[in-house]
């Protein structure tokens, strides 16, 4: 009997070593769960930090409306790309040194301002040529040019004034199709006046036509640029992600 009890007791002595295995597994699982929780905490914290940084560094809407000079330069190239005289368009508008702003309507107004200035300077040239000419036929044609240039400048001034209109009724648009059509007509008429002046001098066989032609060509380029921008204004505004005023 003692032998039997001994063996029974011996079996009980060896069992505790086997009963320790489940406790070890539980500790491993606890450590693994804790490690996973720490890892997830770090990842979530990093994601939240990135979102906060992106939100803090995003410029407000008011800052996005007026772009840096470099962006404005690219915008000007985009607008002038619709014209026949790309370099003339870019150089003449850039020379105004106007505060940078990425807005096709703004660039059109600047282009129109360039056209006005050049034509105002050109308008006095026929009078100067009259004072130097001994050709009565040429004088007659030049006098016609004086009137034509005055009318041409008046057309551009009307266009500029219409573009400056700021008071509109509730729900109205500043640049309606009718207003754009009016400006298109006036700029086209201004260009026609200049062509009529040159045609008259050509018919008279005047020797001063070459001197006047070079200046008229430059003025016509500027007006052609303005007209091209205006003709494409709606698509340009949409391309810039803006709305017609």
Judging by the overall fold, what is the CATH architecture of the domain at 71-240?
Up-down Bundle
- In helices, the fraction of residues equals over 70%
Radius of gyration over C-alpha positions, nearest whole angstrom: 40 Å
Principal-axes shape call: rod-shaped
Descriptive report:
The protein is mainly alpha-helical and 245 residues long. The protein has a domain at 71-240: Butyryl-CoA Dehydrogenase, subunit A, domain 3 (Up-down Bundle). It has helices spanning 2-19, 21-57, 61-65, 69-80, 86-94, 104-122, 125-132, 136-164, 177-204, 209-231, 233-239. The termini are far apart.
Q: How would you describe this structure in keywords?
A:
Invertase/methylesterase_inhib; transmembrane; Butyryl-CoA Dehydrogenase, subunit A, domain 3; 245 residues; glycoprotein; mainly alpha; 80% helix; membrane; 11 helices; single chain
Question: What does the secondary structure layout of this molecule look like, with pairings?
Answer:
Elements: H1 2-19, H2 21-57, H3 61-65, H4 69-80, H5 86-94, H6 104-122, H7 125-132, H8 136-164, H9 177-204, H10 209-231, H11 233-239
Helix pairs in contact: 4-5, 6-8, 6-10, 7-8, 8-9, 9-10
């Amino acid at each position: 009997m003692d032998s039997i009890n001994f063996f029974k007791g011996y079996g009980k002595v060896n069992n505790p070593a086997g009963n320790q295995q489940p406790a070890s597994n539980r500790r491993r699982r606890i450590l693994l769960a804790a490690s996973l929780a720490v890892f997830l905490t770090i990842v979530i914290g990093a994601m939240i930090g990135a979102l906060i940084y992106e939100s803090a560094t995003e410029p407000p809407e008011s800052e996005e409306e007026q772009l840096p000079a470099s962006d404005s330069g690219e915008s000007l190239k985009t607008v002038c790309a619709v014209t026949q005289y790309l370099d003339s368009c870019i150089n003449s508008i850039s020379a105004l040194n106007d505060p940078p702003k990425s807005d096709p309507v703004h660039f059109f107004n600047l282009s129109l301002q360039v056209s006005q200035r050049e034509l105002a300077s050109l308008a006095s040239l026929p009078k100067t040529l009259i004072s130097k000419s001994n050709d009565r036929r040429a004088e007659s044609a030049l006098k016609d040019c004086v009137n034509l240039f005055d009318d041409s400048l008046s057309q551009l001034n009307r266009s500029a004034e219409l573009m400056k209109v700021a008071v509109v009724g509730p729900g109205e648009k500043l640049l309606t199709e009718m207003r754009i059509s009016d400006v298109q007509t006036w700029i086209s008429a201004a260009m026609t006046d200049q062509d009529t002046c040159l045609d008259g001098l050509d018919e008279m066989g005047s020797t001063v036509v070459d001197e006047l032609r070079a200046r008229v060509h430059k003025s016509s380029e500027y007006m052609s640029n303005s007209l091209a921008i205006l003709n494409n204004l709606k698509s340009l505004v949409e391309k810039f992600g803006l709305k017609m005023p």
